[in-house]
Amino acid sequence: MLFLFIFFNSIFISISILSAKSPEVPSIEQAYSKHSNSITVEFTEVSGATSYILRAESENSDFFSETMVSNSPGTVVQLQPYTDYKLSVMSVNSGGRSQPSYSVLGSTVVMAPKLNTSSPNNDTILVTWTPVEHAILYTLCIIKQGSSTRHKLNTTNTMVTFDDLEAGTTYCIKGTAWDSEGRPGDDLTVCQITRPPSPDVTHVQMTPGRSLGIAVYWAKAQGADNYEAWTTNGQNCTLTAHTYCYITPAECGQNQSVSVIAYNNAGPSSPSQPVDYITYPCLPDNIWVEEPKAGNCSVVWDEVELVEYYMAFIKRDDGTENSCNTTDTTCPFFCMCGYTYHTTVFPYNQAGSSPYANVRNYTTIPCCPEGVTINLVSTETLEIMWSPVKGAEMYETTAAQTNDVIHCNDTAPVCALSDLKCNTAYSVTVTPCSDLRGCNRTCMPHTHETAPCVPDILNMTKINNSTYRVLFTTPNSPNTNYTITATGRQSTHTCRSRNNSCELTQLPCGSTYEVMAVATTTVGRSLPGFSQPLETGPCCPMYVNVTQVTQAMTNVTWSPGTGARSYITTLTSPRGHAKCHTLDIHCLMGCITCGTNYSVVLEAISSTGHKSDCKYHGFSSSPCCPTSVKLYRRANNSLRVYWLSMGPQIHNHTVELYGTGANYTCIAAAGSRYCDIQEETCGDVYTVVAAPVGQNGIKVSFCQPRTYSVLCSGSNAGMGKYPLNCSLHILFCSG
Fold this sequence. Notes:
The chain is built from 1 helix and 59 strands. By secondary structure, it is an all-beta fold. The strands form 16 sheets. Strands 3, 4, 6, 7 and 8 form a 5-stranded antiparallel β-sheet that branches. The radius of gyration is 67 Å and the shape is flat. About 30% of the residues are buried.
């Protein structure tokens, strides 16, 4: 084959020489390899060349190739990885090809590692590869799809694990091998998706309809292609791309859990957290009706597992329906006589109830009368009425408190019980009877009470001027209310009690009433009891005024009291007391000294002898007038008034001197017994009044004045050594 190539090449060269001139020989500037199967050659282009031929030969001459290129650079392909080649270039035109250029030595780079990827779990990608011949280092670069963030890793191993990745996300990994000369080889990019995250089961429910199944719903997991749901009892739904599936069939009364697994090309996810579910509860094995008493029925059934509550439905044959929601295994209901009842029980839990149930029928005995009413037509007579009962031909009316004696045996739906005891509860039973079924002895009694017994007033006691306590008999049960009514000409007053006494309050003084007692219960009122008269005491005066006339005499006045004819007034103090009895509204009283506190008690008496005690506190007599009042003349032309105080010295004193030439006033503090006055003129006659000042700042007005004659200095009389104590009628005293 080489011989033929040389032969034809020689013929071509000969023809070119004859027809045209061959182009010049180009020279290679650079040869390098970026891929393991090719080498790129950069060369000088020559004029007149229309194309170029790149020649590559292996060193052991087992490979030879020529590649036609149009310009520089050119690439020789189909080479072997990490192999040395001799490279030359020839220019070509219509005159033929030039001689080959000087050859250069070029080498291909190593192959790219063949990456094998897998995702052991939803946040990890494992990359493995077989060692690349002549490679000493590997570079891996990973990037998340749709992101610009890259992560580069250099390693000498042939296995790398990328973790902390996003579940269900595609990552692209580029691998490059490096040779011992530090040249990167081919790069190879593979993409791998991580396993999907565990789905979140959002809802599990029973499928509607008569076919029992489980419907499982979950949230879509990122990167998942398909899903599969598994139950703990080994059932599963077929692989689906939806976010729900149905597991059929399902048995009643099951308590299981379900998990969902997501799948993609990387494999399955971890199972989701199991979600518990229960199926419809099974139906009770047995249902029956019990009627321990007529009209008191109960639907009873066997207990069922995994039940939260039961719904029992009772339908009467006239279309009336009843239901019961209970956690027990019994449902009481009122069952009327003469009807057939269709009973059904549905057990419920969070999954719902069975779509069907068994029906049990039950027929009752004739019912007791409905609408039984008992009215109190008089204090001791009860009238019983009821609605007729279908099928009843006779009614018996009895009362337990009369030893179940039949009071009425009649076809009419009414009966009267008379001559009964007051305030007594009677238990009345109406029993329907028929020739076919006999009497229904299960009818419930109806209780009604007769009117309360009449209370009697025992006595009435005065508590205060406006309050009277009424004592009366209590012949009735403890829950009886008693009302006491006092009726007068101008007003009516009442009080209520459950005890044997009651207080009539706010009775106006000076009034007359008729008092009567009545008992009341929930049934009604008793007959009124006998009335008793009541007269209130006379009214106290609206005000009392006390005026001190002298130190030992007081005038008491008061306003008239309604209903009062006479009065007894008493003044009481620690130093004594005084009393007067009068038909007037004033009284002059003695024996009450000055400087003391006292109280006033006024007793108003009516014409019938009823009395009202009226007490008034907070009175006090005026401070006592000073005694031993003396007038001294002093050396500095001043006058000193001296006195003695009676009682506690807690009051200020005022001293007034009235002279023919001038008047003087001075005030002495509490506890002081004298007062000094600067005299302007001598030889005057003075009237001296020394009086205490009360707590209200008012001077006592009934202290007696004294008259003194004071001589001038130098006189042999009244030198001031001894006081001139003169009486009221002595104007001048000799020295």
